[in-house]
Every structure is written in C-alpha cells, then in structure tokens.
Amino acid sequence: MIIPPSFRPVTNGHSEPNGTSIPQSEILPIINITPYLLDEQFPGAAERRAATSAAIHEACINFGFFYLDISAFADPRDTEELASLAREFFSLPQEEKDKLALSNQDHARGYARLKENVTNGKADNHEGLDFYRPVENPDKNKPLWGENQWPTIPGFREKYEKWIEKMKMLGPIVMEAYVSAVLIQRVHFVNVEQDGYWSGSSVHILFNFGYPPLPDDHNGFSCGAHRDYGCLTFLYADPTPNALQVLVQRFGIGADVAGLPVEQGNEEGVWISANPIPGCVVCNIGEMWEIWTNGLYKSTLHRVIHRGTNYRVSIPFFFEPNFDAVVKPLDAALRIQDSRKEPPSDKQYKPVKYGDFLLGKVSNNFAGGGGKYD
To answer: What is the pTM of this model?
Structure first.
C-alpha cells in the first residue's frame, strides 16, 4: 500500500526552550517520497506525484524543513549501521583520529577535532569527519582538490560509499518533485541538467558529526544557528531527542536570539525540535533554493543543543549544484510570487556562482580564523 504524502503531526508534543508551548501545527510535516519512486505509467502516479509536490511546496514556504519518508527507498538498518561505524570512529584514541586531519589534504576532507569548527564566532561542541565528491584530476590550486581520507575500520568505506550513491540517486528524485512544485516546465529542468548543474564538478558532501553532551556550565551550542548554503540536505541522526532545533518564523513572536548570526538577530518565531523519526530523513533547503525562488522558499535557521547523556551522531548529506553553476531567480517562481495575495517583495535576489558563494560562507568556519579551503 502506498501512503499518500501528508502533513501528519508528530505525537510527542514538547515545549520551546524558553518554555513557550509549541502547538501541534508547528511540528514539521512528514512527506512520503514513494510516489516519485513509481513508474510514471503506474495507475494514479501522476496524481500522487502532484500531491507530493504540493506538500513539499507548502512545507518549504512555511518551514523550509520537513521529514522525508524514504522507508520505501532505503533500508533503515543501513543508517543504523552508518551511525554505529561513525560512533566507532569517534571513540578511537585522539592520536588515531588525528591521522585523518583536515590539514593532510585540502582542509575540507578528513577529521575535525572537537571545537575546531566555529559558528557565529563560537566553537561548536562537536567533532567531525567529512567526505566530498572525489576529483578525477587533483589540483592543489583549486578548491576541493584533495582526496577523501577513510578510516581503516572494516566495512567503513564500503558502507559509506554505498550510502553516498544512494543519496546521489535521491537528490534528483527530490529535485524533480521541487521542479513540479514551482511549476517549472519539464523542458527547462532538462535544460538545467544539460547545462551541467548536477554533473561535471557538481558537489556532494557527506559529514559525520559526533556530539558529546554539552557541559552543564557551557553557554554555547553544540552547533550554532546557521542556514545551509547549498541546495538540499538529507539528514540522518541517531534517536537522540530534542537536539536539532529549527526556527519557525512566526511574526509577532520574538525568538530567543542568543547565538543567532548578527544579520538574523531580529528573527521572529519559535524554536521547535526536529526529533528523529524512523524511516525518515530530515530534509531542508539551502540558500540556492531561496535564490531560485526569489525568497518564496526560505533557507531556515537551525541549531543543535545536545544536553542529553549520550554521545549523539548525525550524518547529513548535501546535494549541491555544479561548483561553477550560476544560480538566479527562476521565472516560474517569480510568477508564483506575483500571483500570491501577500504584498509583493521589492527584493530580487542577485545571481551567484555557487562555488564562490560556498567559499565565501565557510571562510570563517574554523578556529584560528582560517577557512576550510585556505
């Protein structure tokens, strides 16, 4: 039986960190990707796909985040195994982990120590192990030129490369659903593919984050508030509750601005927890989709505050455009904005080259002021 996409609320209600009760309507929606796994000729496939795209459209306008049910696409045991392997790596002696240090390669691929990553001027209370798309012809003068550094843990590389391939397949499937959501003509989507948005030097990134519990006297965050820079994020996290928090904009409700980037310090809204749901990944849009839709979709602030007793593991995969792709507002998105009843925005986003945008964003992400790609 195929479950239609829906906005099913999560039943475990909770309170916002400052005590504000979060109504059920503020829980992230759950959307099933199954209709886009069906053959287009399957009876009812077109209607189910349309419903999925409509659900994604509303989720991106209202939240910028949603749960993506991929239980028909990926075996949950695979992600559990990835988390177990990541936990095994992070439990190694420090000198063993340091053998894969970022500085060995391009300052992008490899291991980052606890608190080596910085968000909004504060050290994040996590360590990480990062992998990027392999390059065919390494060039030290170009960003991301290096080679991935793999732990020697048996099965680690094999299992992770299998998951990366799975997520690389999921990216275009979800992109097609987005394309339908903003009414982009199919021919335009094909042209975008042919223009090299997702081929050649397109970027895919897989991070592993290990989060020890925050000390009781710690006044920072496990990961400070930020927006994702690129296109789509698919996040798997272990079952740890109340760690990942998403800022849902609600005008007239002041958010806790502590730890927000200066330029977003006046945000209005509430922080809600995006607790893991079996069979789902948390999907959110990055700033490229905000530009493509001229702000109709928002890349949403999110953060991690882990005060539990366990060691939390999360594994985000970032599906990104070509490094040289020029991203600009789409005519279809502008037409949707013109047709909406809200007062039109006078702001039109300027085109950006994805690679330049990415490098500019991460230039201050590491302790000592050095960027990942220096």
So the answer is: 0.87
